[in-house]
């Protein structure tokens, strides 16, 4: 069962007012759901479809196109580890393996305490500071194993 929080219910008309058609607010509403729930479940897509007059299938097709939206429950911190060319040439594969080992999970999994979810990601447009990863909304660049350990240990 999904329901927008009271706060988000109040925000929805403000979001819709920013766009020429209500359908244009699809990505912002998907983002709103993901920030509220941590992922976008099917019931939320139905609800968004009702608000925007879009079919649930259409909402799902858009949501599934973008790797930033998650269709299954995630950890508190979602790590998107860039494995594209600049990051790869600077050791991303080894650093990703190090991160997975440190968290004791495989790529795509969530830690047992639901704190971290680890994903590979394509270029996140911080190539000049490769290798890098994004955790939720923050970028972490010029990574080394030591830096990754410090970052992960510093997150509550
Ligand atoms: S290749 Fe990693 S940020 Fe562009």
From TrEMBL:
Manner of cofactor binding, per the entry note: Binds 1 [2Fe-2S] cluster.
GO biological process: inorganic cation transmembrane transport
GO MF term (any one): NADH dehydrogenase activity
Enzyme Commission identifier(s): 1.6.5.11
Domain of life: Bacteria
Keyword terms: 2Fe-2S, Iron, Iron-sulfur, Metal-binding, NAD, Oxidoreductase, Translocase
GO annotations of cellular component type: catalytic complex; membrane protein complex; organelle envelope; organelle membrane
UniProt cofactor(s): [2Fe-2S] cluster
Pfam families membership: 2Fe-2S_thioredx
UniProt binding sites for [2Fe-2S] cluster: 82, 87, 123, 127
Annotated family: Belongs to the complex I 24 kDa subunit family.
Family annotation (PANTHER family): NADH DEHYDROGENASE [UBIQUINONE] FLAVOPROTEIN 2, MITOCHONDRIAL (PTHR10371:SF3), NADH DEHYDROGENASE UBIQUINONE FLAVOPROTEIN 2, MITOCHONDRIAL (PTHR10371)
Name of protein: NADH-quinone oxidoreductase subunit NuoE
